[in-house]
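Running this now, will post back.
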Amino acid sequence: MADLRAGLIGLGMMGRHHARVLRSLPGVELAAVADAGGDPHGVAGGLTVGQDVQHLIAAGLDYAVVAVPTVYHEPVALALAEAGVHAIIEKPLAQDTASAERVADAFASRGLVGAVGHIERYNPSLQHLRARLEHGELGDVYQVVTRRQGPFPARIADVGVVKDLATHDIDLTAWVTQSPFLSVAAQTALKSGREHEDLVAVVGKLADGTVTSHLVNWLSPLKERVTVVTGERGTFVADTLTADLTYYANGTVPTTWGSLAAFRGVSEGDMVRYAIPKPEPLRTEHEAFRDAVLGKDADIVTMSDGLATVRVAEAVLRSAETGETVHLR
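Update: finished.
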């Protein structure tokens, strides 16, 4: 079978990594690239750098990767759908709910494979956490807490921290629990002089009753990417910077020191840091999308998933603006 012909539009910081992975992916040929701003990282190789999505379409592609700024996601995606080209679009799916709906509908109505690049789902620590939750190792899940903070990335100009970063946490929380968001209450702040928010704190509730909390900012010199899932039998901690997954079990040995036992609540048990394989998340994401285009069973972030995440992100911003809890269903 001939290799799938893939195209890439957007050759910036994320696009350069997509180009690298596409070139190394078995069964795939990177056949066309485009970016109106040229090729700042020199990833085109011998390919002509087109100016727009029409350059990709003219190359006769099987699928495309869209890594342009969020504001351009909708027009690029709609052009690809009209041309019958499968596509994976960097997160968020689109700049707002209405745009995301149009994109998702365009791909679904044409029977095309459409996905969203929520790369955190493919982090080994979260992949293994999800599998362990599926097998019931934590029992009932009570709470999901995420912390995603670090310095401001100068490359981001068109959205704030909610749509750029918190969408990771929204997506991964709904995915690991397999339960959608029911409500959110949020506060934001603008401290760096930009027009968009650079800090958000969100409290949420999922449809299954799980309570969530998300702290996300671009204001910290400390870079942190942590997901903490607490349940009936203990706590999982996934660090997606190091791809480590650690389990803190509730203890079965009674604490005999009375005052200490009263203070701690559940007793401490064993702590295990799992030895897990750590493939590159971006490569795993690309492998899954390639397989989906080939008609194989594949774990992709669907455009329906991406649309749900945009809806929650907009609810977060609406809550911060009004000071009220926003209910999603």
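DSSP finds nine helices and 15 strands in the chain. More later if anyone needs it.
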